[in-house]
Amino acid sequence: MIKAYFFDFMNTLGNADKHVSYIITKKEFHDLLTKKLEDVELSEEYKAMVYSILSEVNFSLYGDSQDVVSRLKKEGYKLAIVSDMYNPLRMRKQLSKFVNYFDVISLSSEVGFRKPDPRIFSNTLTKLNGLNGNNISFKEVMFIGDNYEKDIIPAQRLGMQARLIDRTKQTLSDVI
Q1: What is the number of domains present in the chain?
Q2: CATH number of the domain residue 78 falls in
Q3: 108 with 33, same domain?
Q4: In the prediction, which pLDDT does 149 show?
Q5: How far is CA 84 from the centre of its chain?
Q6: Any idea what DSSP says for residue 11?
Q7: What pLDDT score was predicted for residue 20?
Q8: Local mean pLDDT, 10-residue blocks, the chain (176 residues)
Q9: Which residues of 105-140 are buried (b: 16+ CB within 10 A; e: fewer)?
Q10: If residue 39 lies in a helix (H) or strand (E), which one and from where to where?
């Protein structure tokens, strides 16, 4: 029986209109996903450029995300976001009403792990179970994400149920 839903954010619940991956190396981008900008090894010029881009990012939700997440919350499910994200404060501010539906939000740049590292999933469940005496096991969690290698495989290895979403063909309701 499903007791909790964990969601990826990017390309699953919503998206961002700007990305910095085109101006920095792959290693620098991956560092940015697990560290604060000031801790990433970049020249001051590049840090300023990355900061400028990050401060202008606009996050948006897919049309059905708010309704589906609201319905799941009303039905009593525990909810979490588990996502690789490099500008969590801006996302939390822009989507504040939406993120309030979630019991736990685990973003790679805040927790220091990025998917497919199993620790980002297990830490999320540990935090969730620390709230109000929850006792949810991995087999009682459904993970929904858009990347088979980074979302589905690691979730299933931990014993979670998992479903892949392709937002060009499916709605969130389709996969739930």
Answers
A1: 2
A2: 3.40.50.1000
A3: no
A4: 97
A5: 6
A6: T
A7: 67
A8: 97 86 77 82 83 84 97 98 84 91 94 94 96 90 98 98 97 94
A9: bbbbbebebbbbbeebbebbbebbbeeeeeeeebeb
A10: none
